[in-house]
Fold:
Amino acid sequence: MELLPGPQARVGDLHVPVRLGRAAQAEAALRQAIERLDRAVAADPNFALAWAARAEALVLLYVYTSTPDTEALPEARRSAHRALELDSGLAEAHAALGLTAHTEFAWEEAEREFRKAIELSPGYAMAYHWYASLLKNRGRFDESMKVRERALELDPLSIPIHMGYGLMLSAAGRDEEAEAMYRKAMALDPGHFGILMNLGALDERQGRFEEALAKRQMIASLDPGGSLSEIVAGMRTGWRSEGAEGYWRAKAEGILRFSRPGFAFHRFEAAEALAQLGRIDEAFEILEGLVAARDPSIYQINGEQLLEPLRSDPRYRALLERAGLIR
Structure:
């Protein structure tokens, strides 16, 4: 899955990059970042950049943890608007509002704000990254690729930008290039949770199940004895006893049994597994639930190769239209 960048709250010593691992670790780091930003705006209520960073962190708290959208997103929007009230020409504030709108499925508003951020600060790499993600999510692959390239030119050491570029390449069917991009990101941070997830997903799409299992096991090692380890063990047993069918069945059943907000494997991945098994109605039931809940995981649907068995079904296009992921 595409990980939104961990809150790069570029506010001097308030810069708090979050390296995602287990949900509890991510939540603790994000809440710590928000607390520090709260102190910053309490000390100086006119600190526009801190308000913008606070909005970003609140969005990420919702995306990566079990925090309800009703708790995080209205407050994120309020913080972004406060930043703009203080400085309407602050690119970071427009980008933060765009990120909030993106997460709320307010696509036109998000695009407008990202474009404004880029206009105000042409060297702001993360604004390009977020805008490229929006374009990719809405199926505008050629546009996304150009914006993604510019983001990487501006910040060649950014892990989120490398990961987003890899996802874009994979969605375009350029898997070898996608893997190379992920490997570059891995060289920057060898134990990065999100990179392992994306490399494992690429292995799955290419039928390299032993390699996928090895990466999933590395992820599970972050939570020894937990439900993630149990799911991976089931996937390994399924693969070795029944091949690909056993792998996908064990994955779907394990995710549906243990899935919860903030869990490493998401219900979206269960829908992918069910699609690979030909259990089309069950896959659509999950995806339709994600759209109804406005779950950010649904962003991945455009270009996701494992959902190919669903594309000829009229429900697929209808689902994209309801999510606003097709123009």
Remarks:
- Confidence is low (pLDDT under 50) at residues 1-22.
- The first helix runs from residue 23 to 43.
- Residues 183 and 195 are 8 Å apart (CA to CA).
